[in-house]
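Teaching assistant here, posting this on the class forum so everyone can see the example we discussed in section. The complex has two components, and the goal was to see what a joint structure prediction looks like when all of them are supplied at once.
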Amino acid sequence: MTELPVEPVPAKAPRSKRRDVWDQFKSHKGALLGMFIFAVIVLGVLLGPYLWPYDATYIDIRARNEGPSFAHPMGTDQLGRDTMARMMAGGQTSISVGVTAMLLALVLGSLIGVVAGFFKRLDGPLMRLTDLFLALPLLPLLLVMVLLFREPLSATFGPETGIFILIVVAIGITSWMPTARIVRGDVLALKEREFVLAARSIGTTNFRMITRHILPNVMSPIMVSATLGIANAIITESALSFLGLGFPPDFPTWGRLLYDATNYLQQYPERVIWPGAAISLTVLSVNYLGDGLRDALDPRIRGR
Amino acid sequence: MTDAIVETKGIEVRFPLPTHFLAREKPVLHALNGVDIAIQPGESFCVVGESGCGKTTLGRTIMGLQSPTAGEIYFNGQRIDQMDEAARKPIRRDMQMVFQNPYASLNPRRNVFETLAEPIRHLMPEKTGPEVRAQVEEVLAATGCDPSWQRKLPHEFSGGQRQRIAIARALVTNPAFIVADEPISALDVSIQAQILNLLDDLQAERGLTYLFITHDLSVVEHFGTRVAVMYLGRVMELAETDTLFSAPKHPYTRLLLDAIPKIEGGSFDNPREPGELPDPVNMPPGCPFAPRCPMAEARCRTERPELRTLDNGTQAACHFAE
């Protein structure tokens, strides 16, 4: 807040909450930039394939291993597939896996955190469960899950949807623990605040207590977890694809592109840079976006 | 005497302390030990005592925020401590609470209107939208709040303004009985007087009954009709306010009265008896005040004095009070 208001506006119309949130959000330059970059990436990977002449799976063996040119701005790979088209197709998968897995982890984590914090009796068992999940080595567990469930899921839902569900669920149920812990801690503190007692003194039911008084007040840590969760999910999916356990080989994701490109790291380093930069940019922009959103949604920070 | 609006009969509250799950002993904290009070309609019944004496627990137990381990609580002759939620709902409308810390007692994410409308919507579901709005505006006016506050969030207000809103929330269902748990101790001195006067005016207008919990005896003198002095979960002395201040019967009450700073000085000239509060987990067998009492004798350490009525109507729990 660098300048003082010149004159007080006398009859101010009741400010709408959405307007307030947007005003606060705008004042966070990093968040604005993050939102812009994330929007560009999302629009690019969603609409790009319709505008771009090359298909991600089209093989043009005569044009293989080309460097960046006007026809192929990001070059082509060892089979002559256009890297730009593969980046866009891969982004669709990576971002949708990231967002869905994050939502799953968030719902699971918030649910377990709120229940553990709110109901004293369930606190111990649920937190030990959380510790148990935290103690599991993540990658070996993911590998076992992928090995065990890849076939039945592919058979039921088709290879692509099946693997998508498998990876989203695998990432979701192995990354809810930090959210649960943070939310539980906040709920424990909130539960002792007097406004919760005041609500209890009028006989508010537990469900209404949680939805009206507890959840809105733990939105900040949940938002932070959400943004970190997207980043985490994209990276985990990349790691799985990188290990060759994610989507089928002809199905591009950013992680799979990285995996394919490492073989040619010395001859064609730019092939690693494209997906790497895309992952980093997405993760970074989502983090800034979440940071700004958290500030904007907090009424105590807002309007200051 | 008329029928009491709120009456407690020997209520006890014990908190089990956290232990290792294999521990043999299960230590228990005795927060309330057999408290009997009867609050008459229209009075301002004050409860005083030092930190940890159970006065807040008493208020919360009466409000049903804490269920008593033993004993009975009556509201207008109905026993309320074992009621189920459905039966209790109309009673919740008639008893409300004002909390100590106005910075913690309002949900920071909900604006004033939402905060005030919640008790009506929950406890009086028959009210329509416009009726709720009218009732909220009426109670805001009654507590000296500006109607334009309705769309604002709690962080936009000062402590005194927040406490007015908290009082408005307590009054919005038109209760007959209000538990005020140290409603002014978190406020500036200048604001304290405003809030006390507001409570006084509201009592005159609406015929409210207060259970006023405080540790400030000068507030009691100004505000209360009857006073219960509590110590370690027990009522030590229960008297009319004037009687208590003019003729304190219990040595603990005298100690409290001596501790009020006086303008002419002198209050701190005589060093007081040293002494500590006994541990509320392992209560000594005798009078809980005996370790600090200047009059204590051997009898006090073995035999616990019961609350008994003296000649001037005061009730005191001391072997030597008369």
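For the discussion questions: Residues 1-14 of chain A have pLDDT under 50 and may be disordered. Residues 210 and 216 of chain A are 9 Å apart (CA to CA). Think about how each of these relates to the inputs above.
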